[in-house]
Fold each of these.
Amino acid sequence: MKFAKLQATGNDFILVDARASEFEWAKLAKDMCQRQFGVGADGLIAILPSKRAILRMRLFNPDGSEAEISGNGLRCFAKYVVDRGIVSGHELTVETLAGIRTIE
């Protein structure tokens, strides 16, 4: 599995492009976010397809629980998908548990 680690104003996240695969997200977050034995991060972000927006973001805390949204996590998500050419243009809509978010 390939992943990237990004940070925004002190919060660091592991990002996984999972548009073509599925994982056991809670377990993966617990394993990877551990700072002593894993990669270490404030959360794990899954990049997924969406039927309601351009992409879907799922965010998991280090304890495996799912969060609705994180502003810094959303910034990392947007940077990742734009820098890698997953999306283009000046506006990105992202489905989250907190609803659809638009990033310009």
Amino acid sequence: MKLFGLAVCLSLSAFMGAAHGETPCETASTRLLDALDRGDYAGATVDFDTTMKAKLSADTLSQVWQAIPPQFGERGAREPVQTTQLGEHSVVLTPLHYGQQMIDAQVTCAADGKITGFFIKPHH
């Protein structure tokens, strides 16, 4: 019975942690980066809007993502996201560690949470 109570508490705490008020764009950004890290390039495009899907294919995304480690070093941790509002768009910036360097993954979303932009840029 004690193990069941512990399992329920852990399950509830995991649920509460996930429901901490993450914005739809933060969720989409995390899904995108998680899929890229798994090598699931088609899955990485699932939250792209129609224009993004037309302009950035899974194959192109694969080429870009796989070119990063040779340039910057082995993939490390992610820093906490920074989210800003730009008009009707949300912008999520996720600093990524690669070797001794950092780069930023910037994801821009429309109000519906669909990704309208994805950029890899030098860390600011």
